[in-house]
Design a protein that fits this description.
Layout (H helix, E strand, L loop, with lengths): L1 E10 L2 E11 L3 E6 L6 H8 L7 E6 L10 H4 E4 L11 H11 L5 H10 L3 H4 L8 H13 L5 E5 L7 H16 L3 E6 L2 H5 L4 E6 L2 E7 H4 L5 H16 L1
Helix pairs in contact: 3-4, 4-6
Length: about 240
C-alpha cells in the first residue's frame, strides 16, 4: 500500500506539492493524472526517497521507502526510462539488477519474455533502443523482484498502440494478483481503461479523487479532466 499524508514540497519560492493526501491500496491501479508540471514526478520522487518532503509523510507498505528491507524487491519503480547506461545491453542491465537483488539469472529471461523484448533486442546496447524499447526495459527492471508495489511515471511514453494495450493488460494482471500500482500520466484515455481510482493534480494540489465510476457521474470523467486542466492552464497564465 502507498499512502501520502499531507505532503508538501517547496523549492525556495516554488511550492511543488501542497498538502497532497491519497492512498493506493493493494490489488488496485491508481491513475495519477495531471498536466506536465502538475507535481506528479515530484510526488513520486518524494515517495521513493529521492526528494525530502518539506512537511507531511509518504510511506510504502506502512514505512518510509528508505526504511524497507531490500526496497528494490518490494517496490518496483520506473521514474525515467532514459536513466539507463547507454553502453550496456538490455540483458546486461537486467542481469546487474538481478544480481543486486540476489535473484537467479533465470529471472532475467522471464522478465524479458514478460515485457516482450526478444533475445536479439536484449543483446543490443541501450543507445540503439527506441523510447518504447527503453520503456519496456524499464518496466522489466521494475518487475525483477516480483514487487508488491509498482510506481510508474509516464510508462506509456513512446509505446505504440499495441504496446499501450500490452501495458494495460500487464498492470491489470498485476493488480488482480494483489499488487498496488501507482500510474502517473498526463493522458486521461491511457489511464481510465485500467485504473480503479483516479487522483487528479494541478499546481501541486490534489484537485479531485475517487473511483472511475464516481468521477464519471455528472459531467463525466473526460469533461471533469478537461475542466480541471483548463482551470490549471488559466491560473498559470
Amino acid at each position: 500500500m502507498i499512502e501520502f499524508s499531507h505532503v508538501s514540497k517547496s523549492y525556495k519560492r516554488v511550492r511543488a506539492l501542497d498538502d497532497v493526501s491519497f492512498t493506493v491500496r493493494e490489488g488496485s491501479v491508481t491513475g495519477f493524472l495531471g498536466p506536465n508540471g502538475a507535481g506528479k514526478s515530484t510526488a513520486m520522487r518524494v515517495l521513493v526517497g529521492l526528494s525530502r518532503a518539506t512537511s507531511g509523510s509518504a510511506t510504502v507498505l506502512g514505512r518510509p521507502y528508505a526504511e524497507l528491507d531490500c526496497p528494490g524487491s518490494q517496490v518496483g519503480t520506473l521514474l525515467d526510462a532514459g536513466a539507463q547506461h547507454p553502453g550496456r545491453t538490455g540483458r546486461e542491465i537486467l542481469t546487474l539488477g538481478a544480481m543486486t537483488l540476489g535473484l537467479p539469472r533465470s529471472r532475467v529471461g522471464e522478465v524479458l519474455d514478460m515485457v516482450g523484448l526478444t533475445g536479439r533486442e536484449s543483446g543490443r546496447t541501450v543507445r540503439g533502443y527506441s523510447l518504447g524499447m527503453r520503456q519496456r526495459l524499464g518496466i522489466g527492471h521494475a518487475l525483477l523482484g516480483r514487487p508488491r508495489v509498482l510506481v510508474l511515471d509516464e510508462p506509456a511514453n513512446g509505446l505504440d498502440p499495441q504496446g499501450i494495450r500490452w501495458m494495460r493488460e500487464l498492470l491489470r494482471d498485476l493488480a488482480d494478483s494483489g499488487c498496488a500500482v501507482l500510474l502517473s500520466s498526463h493522458l486521461l484515455h491511457e489511464v481510465e481503461r485500467v485504473a480503479d481510482h483516479i487522483v487528479m493534480i494541478g499546481h501541486g494540489r490534489v484537485l479531485i479523487q475517487g473511483t472511475v465510476e464516481e468521477l464519471d457521474r455528472g459531467r463525466g470523467l473526460e469533461q471533469t479532466f478537461l475542466d480541471l486542466t483548463a482551470a490549471t492552464d488559466r491560473s498559470a497564465a
